[in-house]
């Protein structure tokens, strides 16, 4: 099944909707879904969206939920030095 997944400005997936939900709630417009997911009042004058919507395929909604929960752990592991990585000067 195809899902539309909202990624925030840090490229972390936040929420996904199915094709059916996109059609029912957002009139089949991914841009409306994108605007609905953005935090209210955050850069209200900016016309360009801060995040983006990706189209992903999952066999079930459970796979989508697992994807949304698992993403981001590699960032925590890097900054808290849980794996063999060296800190970089940014």
Short characterization:
The chain has 90 residues and is an alpha+beta fold.
How are the SSEs placed, and which strands pair?
Blueprint: E1 2-7, E2 13-18, H1 19-26, H2 30-37, E3 52-57, H3 61-70, H4 73-79
Antiparallel strand pairs: 1-2, 1-3
Q: Please identify the structural class as seen in this structure.
A: alpha+beta
Please provide the count of β strands.
Answer: 3
Query: Rounded to an integer, what's the Rg over CA atoms?
Result: 16 Å
Largest sheet: 3 strands, antiparallel
Span from first to last CA? 39 Å
- The portion of residues assigned to helices is 25-40%
Q: What is the strand content?
A: 15-25%
Strand order of the largest sheet: 2-1-3
Broad shape:
flat
Whole-number mean pLDDT: 78
What ranges have pLDDT less than 50 throughout 5 or more consecutive residues?
A: none
**Secondary-structure element string:** EEHHEHH
State the helix count.
Answer: 4
Can you put this structure into words, describing what you see?
The chain is α+β, with helices and mostly antiparallel strands and 90 residues long. It has 4 helices and 3 strands; from the N terminus they run E-E-H-H-E-H-H. A 3-stranded antiparallel sheet has the order 2-1-3. Strand 1 (2-7) and strand 2 (13-18) form a beta hairpin. The relative contact order is 0.21. The model has no long low-confidence stretch (mean pLDDT 78).
């Amino acid at each position: 099944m195809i899902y539309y997944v909202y990624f925030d400005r840090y490229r972390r997936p936040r929420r996904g909707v199915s094709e059916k939900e996109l059609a029912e709630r957002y009139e089949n417009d991914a841009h409306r879904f994108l605007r609905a997911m953005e935090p209210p009042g955050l850069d209200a004058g900016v016309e360009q969206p801060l995040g983006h919507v990706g189209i992903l395929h999952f066999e079930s909604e459970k796979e989508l939920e697992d994807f949304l929960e698992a993403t981001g752990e590699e960032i925590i592991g890097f900054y808290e030095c849980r794996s063999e990585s060296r800190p970089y000067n940014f």
